[in-house]
Write a structure and sequence with these properties.
Layout: H1 5-24, H2 32-35, H3 40-46, H4 53-74, H5 79-107, H6 112-119, H7 121-134, H8 145-167, H9 178-199, H10 205-215, H11 220-226
Length: 228
């Protein structure tokens, strides 16, 4: 999934933003063992993160890293499950980054799309923690119409979104590179497909939970719905 030069600049800009945030916005460290027990808001207060865009980005990123470290620790005796969740973390984050890249292309740019990516990381960790709790248990293996309906809803939402993205055309008066759009869309599609392959297609509770991030988006649904 090679990035275009524009995509590489987007990724580099996001990396710089995160590094700057970590270095500049925080003045007090919060131990991860404490962070795991706090809300993001309380974590931000304890860490003395400021209210700037960079400060909010850094708080969400640092908090999610603590949650990720805690999950890895808790799964130290289950290396296969841990490795699977690490892969899912990478894919969920990549999906969100592609969401932000597409949104930026569709809207003619804007820094909000870069800011939105690290701020969704805590939600990714919530999904992974849910999967770790359900995986391999009778609760995760549970079957029922509610899980089937949830899976169907997530799949249909993803399919509808991809269909709209396939047919999307710019309506605003701003520079638009169709090759960049196609590349970003391919990354988004390939990442979604990789997530579905890793989760499998069993209609149980664990699979339904893993599909939930595919049923929504960070920015794309709002943009596509506003163009209806």
């Amino acid at each position: 999934m090679a990035l275009t030069s524009w995509g590489a600049r987007f990724g580099a800009a996001l990396a710089v933003l995160v590094v700057f945030s970590l270095g500049q916005a925080q003045t007090a460290q919060v131990p991860c063992t404490l962070a795991e027990k706090l809300s993001l808001y309380s974590f931000s207060l304890q860490g003395n993160y400021d209210d700037s865009e960079a400060g909010q980005d850094a708080a969400a990123y640092d908090y999610s890293q603590c949650l990720a470290a805690g999950l890895t620790r808790d799964l130290s005796r289950m290396p296969q499950l841990s490795a699977r969740l690490v892969m899912l973390r990478r894919l969920y984050r990549q999906l969100n980054a592609a969401d932000g890249q597409l949104a930026s292309v569709m809207e003619g740019g804007g820094t909000m799309y870069a800011h939105g990516i690290p701020r969704i990381y805590p939600e990714v960790e919530t999904t992974l923690r849910t999967l770790s709790a359900l995986e391999g248990s009778k609760y995760g293996a549970a079957l029922g119409p509610q899980f089937t309906a949830s899976l169907r809803s997530s799949r249909q939402a993803l399919s509808a979104r991809l269909s709209l993205l396939d047919g999307w055309k710019p309506s605003g008066d701003f520079p638009f590179d169709p090759a960049v759009y196609r590349s970003a869309l391919k990354t988004y599609k390939d990442t979604a497909a990789a997530i579905m392959k890793l989760l499998g297609d069993t209609n149980n509770a664990a699979t339904a939970a893993g599909y939930l991030p595919l049923g929504g988006s960070v920015f794309l649904d709002d943009i596509l719905n506003s163009n209806d």
